[in-house]
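Quick one:
INPUT:
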């Protein structure tokens, strides 16, 4: 699976209708759609599609037509995300009507073309599942633990010292967390 490094934007045109497409992180979808409705009050439609993994690692995906004929916009945008194997992303396509009806096939082509254009502008990266882990080391191994937590891709969330040693809560790639947990705590301490 793939995801994006940062949001991306593209604009396309079909028979004088303008299509403004944004590829965003899924968690930013609700905020961004609200912003776009405010920024583009005269736009006719704000079509969305998204794919993300929920807390149980289930794939959730959906396309919304936002007033366009059923199946002509949201689903074609979703198919673009599926075809590119993108996860934890959403595409929003804002349409300004140009005066000429596009028909069912024209709408499908226009919306999928806009979503594809935004995807083409995006920096696509490998999706790496993330998680959190609580690690522990006695004072004699505290330096080794600190050094291990200093590697790239690891974020220290909390650090506590007590009479028995050092406790550190970290976030990062699940594979790395499992390796560190095997050395510094029990594997069941990994939280997604």
């Amino acid at each position: 699976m793939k995801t994006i490094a940062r949001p991306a934007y593209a604009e396309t045109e079909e028979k004088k209708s303008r299509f403004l497409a944004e590829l965003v992180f899924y968690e930013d979808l609700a905020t961004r759609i609200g912003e776009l409705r405010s920024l583009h009050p005269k736009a006719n439609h704000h079509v969305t599609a998204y794919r993300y993994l929920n807390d149980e690692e289930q794939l959730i995906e959906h396309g919304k037509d936002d007033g366009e004929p059923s199946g002509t916009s949201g689903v074609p945008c979703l198919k673009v995300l599926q075809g590119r194997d993108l996860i934890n992303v959403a595409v929003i396509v804002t349409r300004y009507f140009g005066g000429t009806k596009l028909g069912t096939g024209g709408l499908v082509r226009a919306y999928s073309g806009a979503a594809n254009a935004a995807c083409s502008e995006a920096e696509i990266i490998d999706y790496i599942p993330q998680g959190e882990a609580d690690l522990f080391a006695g004072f004699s191994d505290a330096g080794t633990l600190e050094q291990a937590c200093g590697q790239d891709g690891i974020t220290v969330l909390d650090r506590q010292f007590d009479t028995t040693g050092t406790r550190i809560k970290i976030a990062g790639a699940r594979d790395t967390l499992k390796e560190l947990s095997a050395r510094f705590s029990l594997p069941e301490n990994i939280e997604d």
